[in-house]
Amino acid sequence: MYPYLLVTIGSGVSILKVESEDSFERIGGTATGGGTFWGLGKLLTSAKDFDELLSLAEQGDHRNVDMLVKDIYGSDYTALGLPGDLIASSFGKMIQLSNDSEKKFSEADIARSLLYIISNDIGQIASLYAMLHKVKRIYFGGFFLRHRPVSLHTISYAINYWSKGQVQANFLRHEGYLGAIGAFLKGAEAVDTSNYAWTENLYGSSSFRACWPHKDRDSSLEVDHLEIDRFDSQLGCCPLLENADAYIPDSVDLTHDHDARDYWLQCFQDSLPKFTDRAIDSQASATDVNERADKFKEKFSTRLHMLKAKPFAFGNLTVRSLLDMREHCLKEFDFHDPYLRQKQLENKTALALLPDRLQELATMDWDLKQVELALGFLAGNVFDWGAKEVALLMEEGNLDFSAAKNHIGPRPWLIDHVDAWLARLRGNSAHTCACIFVDNSGGDFVLGVVPFAEEMLRRGTSVILCANSHPILNDVTYAELVILLQQVAEISPIVKEGLLTGKLVARESGQASPCLDLGRLNHQLAVDMKDMGVDLIVLEGMGRAIHTNLDTKFKCESLKVAVIKNKWLAQRLGGEMFSVVFKYESKPETS
User: Which among 151, 436, 476, 551 is least surrounded, fewest beta carbons within 10 Å?
Assistant: First the structure.
């Protein structure tokens, strides 16, 4: 993300160039800022406060006050590339105003023109500093913009116009908290912040102020506020991303993709009743469970309706952010692991099947075994309570490991790099270390991942198994992974030896989502990836390999494995329900 400009708009404007977390300098600014807008606004209008002045500006038409290019030339001035609607002179039409002439403008028109003067000036100055310092990104903070669309649009337009599209304007959802957040983090250093990180709580934080009319706003969010949670480990970037500065985890931006947004919002809404029932079942003996579940359901449903009307209400909207928001709402009402008992049951069932599964693989010749390992990886991945269609099958008891394998269609699959993967295994030396980000409990991990990891160990490859730090759906957590590996070690001598020798280790990923943000990994995992010489990254599951990271490039080899258990998504990618992604990418030549 570095370098970038941070433009803070308060009474005046300061422009800082930020080159790293601890390297920044003020490179300029202007005295024409929010104070100028409010001061002149008080002189020229009857607005009583800053927000009233902004509201007045939103109602006005600056063309009644400003002189445009077409007012001078009659139309566009094509010789200089000036469109007719471009402002030639702010307040220029006031020149013609005499004491006895009829006013053809209102206070709202004056406020709109004044807002354009300030915003265009800030936008031009910021873009010139960006081009002078060869910076492509500008972030705007302070409390001048107030998330008003007219203010955001004016500055965005100015940045784009003056930089000819070379500089991007970015706006902070909690712009007014920028200084408070900085002061908080600075003060928190006194209690040793090196051991943890911070993340936003999407339940407690309010949306963009402009997103919801006051009369319709959630009563608990009438005062705009930001809530952040402490994450109990330090987070850092994956050291094997090919371009960490340009890394974006999410495959689809729902803010801009209307069809995808409509589908996923409805999907989350449709699954809410069964999800609520699951939460109730997980704490059936609690006397207040129904009351808490109803509050969760109402809260998350309200958020979904808000996002349908205003998809940018909580910043960039993605499948990952929707999952995070649902989880934050669950935890707010003390539902911390609704699938715990289901995971325990599925783990117990899968462990009982593991000896036969390993024996079956041991009887196969090498080529057939490698294909079967890939197939087992995929079959196990079918067990996903987060996929609506699969959850229905699992609730009806119509899905076991054999049945899951039958859902995997014949090759070639939707993305089928099995042959390239086998050629890599056959023709090259063993990998130094494989880092596998695991997905679901039960058959997915025990019958899919474990045999694959065992084969890696047999080849002499070290293995890091990475699981979520906190529970979500039926995904394996780090705490559960440690116990599972001890149980697997009683069945597999290879796994037992790997644990004893340190060739096989479990690590927490720093995540609490079915998706994976490789820009916020557990710090120790990032260190281990370097120290253990990871040269193969394996991402398993729809969340980690489809919703996020499908197109992510690495400095090393990568394997992205998933069964698409969502009919709409499968068709969007050109396949059908239970289509398979087995995507192998070799190490880039430049790496």
Answer: 551
CA-to-CA distance for 244 and 213, rounded, in angstroms? Answer: 39
C-alpha 549 chain-centroid distance: 11
Q: Are 488 and 347 in contact (CB under 8 A)?
A: no
**pLDDT by residue, tens only, the chain of 591 residues:** 789 999 999 999 999 999 988 899 999 999 999 999 999 999 999 999 988 999 999 999 999 999 999 988 889 888 888 888 888 999 998 887 776 666 788 999 999 999 999 999 999 999 999 999 999 999 998 888 877 778 888 899 889 988 999 999 998 878 878 888 888 888 877 777 777 888 888 888 877 655 444 444 444 444 577 888 888 788 999 999 999 988 999 999 999 899 999 999 999 999 999 999 999 999 999 999 999 999 999 999 999 999 998 888 888 899 999 999 999 999 999 999 999 998 998 899 889 999 999 999 999 999 999 998 988 888 766 655 444 444 444 455 544 667 677 778 888 999 999 999 999 999 878 999 999 999 999 889 999 999 999 999 999 999 999 999 999 999 999 999 999 999 999 999 999 999 999 999 999 999 999 999 999 999 999 999 999 999 999 999 999 999 999 999 999 999 999 988 888 998 999 999 888 999 999 999 865
CA distances from 557 to 408, 417, 427, 432 (A): 25, 13, 15, 11
Contact by Cβ (8 Å): 484, 446:
yes
Give CA torsion, residues 546, 549, 555, 556, to 10 deg.
Answer: -30
Cβ atoms of 151 and 143 closer than 8 Å: no
Count Cβ atoms below 10 Å from residue 428 Cβ, excluding itself. 10
137-142 vs 4-9, strand pairing mode: parallel
Contacts of residue 434, defined as CB under 8 A and 6 or more positions apart, other chains included, come to 453, 456, 461, 462, 463, 464, 534, 535, 536, 537, 538
**Residue 456 to residue 434: CA distance in whole angstroms:** 8
Closest CA to 216 of 281, 133, 310: 310
Distance of alpha carbon 84 from alpha carbon 466, whole angstroms: 59
Reported for 483-486, long-range contacts at CB under 8 A and 24+ positions apart, including other chains, are 484/347, 484/351, 484/445, 484/446
Is 143:175 a contact under the CB 8 Å cutoff?
Answer: yes
Give the pair of three-digit tokens for residue 528.
């281990």
